[in-house]
Amino acid sequence: MLDKTELLKSIVLELKEARDKAAQAADSAKETATNKENVAENRYDTLGLEAAYLAHGQSDRILQLEEALRLFEQMEISQTREVTMGSLVELENERGENSFVFVGPSSGGLKVTCGNLPIQVITPVAPLGQMLMGAQVGDEVTLGIGKQTRTFLVVAVY
Questions:
Q1: pTM exceeds cut of 0.70
Q2: What percent of the chain stands above pLDDT 90?
Q3: Which of 43, 74, 105 is where one domain is finished?
Q4: 82 with 136: CB under 8 angstroms?
Q5: Would you call 41 exposed, middle or buried from its count of C-beta atoms within 10 A (0-12, 13-18, 19+)?
Q6: Secondary structure element (H or E) that encloses residue 137, with its range
Q7: 8 and 51, same domain (yes or no)
Q8: Is residue 70 part of a domain?
Q9: Is 81 part of any domain?
Q10: Is the residue at 79 inside a domain?
């Protein structure tokens, strides 16, 4: 089966790439914001101001990604029979389709591929994460999504 050490490496690599892209975007926005050609000529000329806001947002994103990197790099791999932080969980939906989720400390929604398997990071505070915490193989969890409910069978916990 999948090596969780390799999975963590994949997650860290994806977060580093996202951080580097955000840094490039922030640098570009800062350059645009401070370029003499972008000095406002009237109150409707907002290119420099908009670029400054974008640079600030990208800087905040970099800080978030660095914190996520720190959390994943410090994460210890555990082997338990129930879903906990750091569990890789194989789920089967009502249609018999299988998917994999990794319970991480942050970066919910991040998708990585490891061992040719698509894996989505979820957090314990996400609705699915809340339902899965403490679940074991064979347990069913039901998740309300709007007016619909989705049921998942826990096939495996790694």
A1: yes
A2: 66
A3: 74
A4: yes
A5: exposed
A6: none
A7: yes
A8: yes
A9: no
A10: no
